Amino acid sequence: MRVMAHCTAAVLAASLLIATAPAVLATPPDDTLSVDSATGSRDRQDVRFATYNASLNRTAPGELLRDLGTGGNIQAQAIAEVVQINRPDVVLLNEFDYVPGNRAADLFNENYLRVGQNGRKPLDYPYVYTAPSNTGVPSGFDLNNDGSVGGPDDALGFGAFEGQYGMVIYSKYPIETESVRTFQHFLWKDMPGALLPDNPATGAQGDWYSTNELAVLPLSSKSHWDVPVSIAGRTVHVLASHPTPPVFDGEEDRNGRRNSDEIRLWSDYVTGGADASYIYDDAGATGGLKRGERFVVMGDQNSDPLDGDSLPGSIGRLLGNKLVQDPMPVSKGATEASALQGGANAEHRSDPRYDTADFEDRSAGNVRVDYVLPSRTLRVSGSGVFWPQAGTPGSELTGIFPFRTSDHRLVYADVTLHGGRQR
Length: 423
Ligand SMILES: [Ca+2]
Ligand SMILES: [Ca+2]
Ligand SMILES: [Ca+2]
What we know:
The protein is an alpha+beta fold. The protein has a single domain (9-418), classed as Deoxyribonuclease I, Chain A, CATH 3.60.10.10. 19% of the residues lie in helices and 18% in strands. The chain has helices at residues 9-15, 63-68, 74-86, 103-113, 211-214, 254-271, 314-319, 332-341, 395-398; strands at 33-35, 42-56, 90-96, 127-130, 167-171, 181-182, 225-231, 234-240, 294-300, 370-374, 379-385, 411-418. The strands form two sheets. Strands 1, 2, 3, 4, 5, 11 and 12 form a seven-stranded mixed β-sheet that branches. A five-stranded mixed β-sheet has the order 6-7-8-9-10, with no helix packed on it. Helix 6 (254-271) links the parallel strand 8 and strand 9 (294-300). The structure holds calcium ion (3 copies). The site of one calcium ion (CA) has 6 residues, from loops.
């Protein structure tokens, strides 16, 4: 079902996913660390991984820096409060404008996460990772075939300026910075069987993009990051991304096809071996994860298993990968919102309790698009979506449109790591 064909940039901007910051330094209740009193060895560690599209994107360069330069931005306060309530140990924020030198990421940490919001306990994330995004980077080509070159829709990833809708990871645990791999520049055409779109007005197949355009067009609309985090002597690969919304295009479905292949990249990457041999990172190294490595796929994937506008089977490919487990986090607030809002929600096939985003109900409706997917090699002890029922504590932070925080909800999974403390 592809309801939305052409939309304005403003609508697109409003619907892009966001991610904001979480943090944890003070030991939260869920941060169980049992220590053998005789040996001091740590034999078990509970870790909360979260993803949150925070809608902390702005309309022009410099605006986010200005908003985060003091502690007074109402939306940033509300986003920080949501993170402080849920207290993830590692959190990915989507839709957080990238500013070189980690400047926006550090300001959100200092002026919001480390400041108790509305009586909440502050968080302190000593480790932060962010990197450039393809959004807003001029391609020099007419990628949307509207007859002119330039603007958000002709950029390497949709964006009004470079770095808009970027992302950031905050971590309580050390990030193995020297081992981070990024896939910002991997070209879409270099994925075997890439779903390259077709220009329906011509007889040739798969020709929406010219050869010259395909020579510069990356697969990733933002970036794909493999960020290894060291937890009690073990490495967990945080696989972060934010595939394009599958809408805001035409019959050729260029965004739906790109969305699907952006999701596929991680499925191939975690499978590794021959399936990942085509993948190269921005430093030129090839291949995916080694069998048995621990990972958590996180981010707004812009794809519901059954509803919405993504290509059928797009998120299903990742959820069905035998190396991936889906904790299927739920909330009561999502079920309530679906019934109250009606519209497209009434036609949905997915159970609304899995929804993570509250979209316009005349088009997509509320859907599940934000995921935290641990590897089978990790033990999952819990999961959830922060979407309180109306009138219950925290519901003022989610609520109904226009949202104080974001049109997305924070999603988390708790993982237990056993043994392996290196002495
Ligand atoms: Ca154009
Ligand atoms: Ca054609
Ligand atoms: Ca809605």
